[in-house]
Amino acid sequence: MPTPHLEAKPGDIAEIVLLPGDPLRAKYIADTFLQDVTQYNSVRNALGFTGTYKGLKISVQGTGMGMPSAMIYTEELVREYGAKVLIRIGSAGGMKEDVQIRDVVLGQAATTDASLHRNIFHNQVDYAPIADFGLLKTAYEVGEERGFPIKVGNILSSDRFYNDELDMKKLADYGVMAVEMEAAGIYSVAAKHKVKTLTILTISDHILTGEETSSEERQTSFEDMMVVALETALQTEL
Asked: Active site located where (predicted)?
């Protein structure tokens, strides 16, 4: 049945779903990489599409910005539509010197300054959400085989975009490679429902150097991570 945020009918959404934050990136992926595409969602302009990639049924769903928004879509995709593999694909800010603009970063784990885990676990633990190892391993191998600039490590899911109080340098000193805004929430929903998840990011700007890409480039041209996500999905057992 349709949810408050997704108007898809049963069967419209695949068991494997790519999750870009930007709904126009969802459209770009569907238009560029998928065949036999149908659009199943336009509620709140959170565009969602289903098609096939080399014969595999795949959906692409925009989640919007931030963990609260991303968690709404992932919860409904899994609980109401039976999604079993969730692969976030998005942009991120580089935080370490050895991470360069346009590098592809795989989020092995997702540190966060958000209160969501303290709420879930009633302040008993600092829960550390992580990616599915099988997806992580496959994605790394796909990137290596194609010669993409690919790195693996801890990422930061920030609760705020403008967050002057957060000590980014200290986080980088502790090995955090990049900052984005959704992965920790998606990983936590996936853990709750025992489904597979991974975050694949392209470095769009750099905290240390001030380098950045254009908004149009972030929306449409980060194809290395899109290929890694699609090829990983192709090799994933449901």
From this structure: 205
Nearest to 183 by CA among 100, 116, 120, 232: 116
Q: Is position 25 annotated in a ligand binding site?
A: yes
Per-residue pLDDT reduced to its tens digit, 134-178: 999 999 999 999 999 999 999 999 999 998 899 999 999 999 999
Output the CA–CA distances (angstroms, integers) from residue 63 to 5, 73, 224, in the order listed: 10, 6, 20
Nearest Cα to Cα of residue 100 among 182, 223, 201: 201
**Would you say residue 10 lies in a domain?**
no
Which member of 31, 103, 132, 205 is catalytic?
A: 205
- pLDDT tens digits for 95-149? 999 999 999 999 999 999 999 999 999 999 999 999 999 999 999 999 999 999 9
Please indicate if the annotation marks 182 as binding a ligand.
Answer: yes
Where does residue 175 fall: left (phi above 0), alpha (psi -120 to 50 degrees), or beta otherwise? left
What is the distance between the alpha carbons of residues 233 and 53, in angstroms, rounded to a whole number?
9
In a domain, 7, yes or no: no
205 is catalytic: yes
CB 105 within 8 A of CB 151: yes
In terms of Cβ atoms closer than 10 Å to its own Cβ (0-12, 13-18, 19+), residue 120 is middle
Tell me whether residue 11 is in a domain.
no
Taking the whole predicted model, whether its pTM rises above 0.85 is answered as yes
Q: Which domain holds residue 20?
A: 16-235
User: Distance between CA atoms of 193 and 85, rounded to whole angstroms?
Assistant: 11
Q: How many CA atoms lie within 13 A of 99 on its CB side?
A: 29
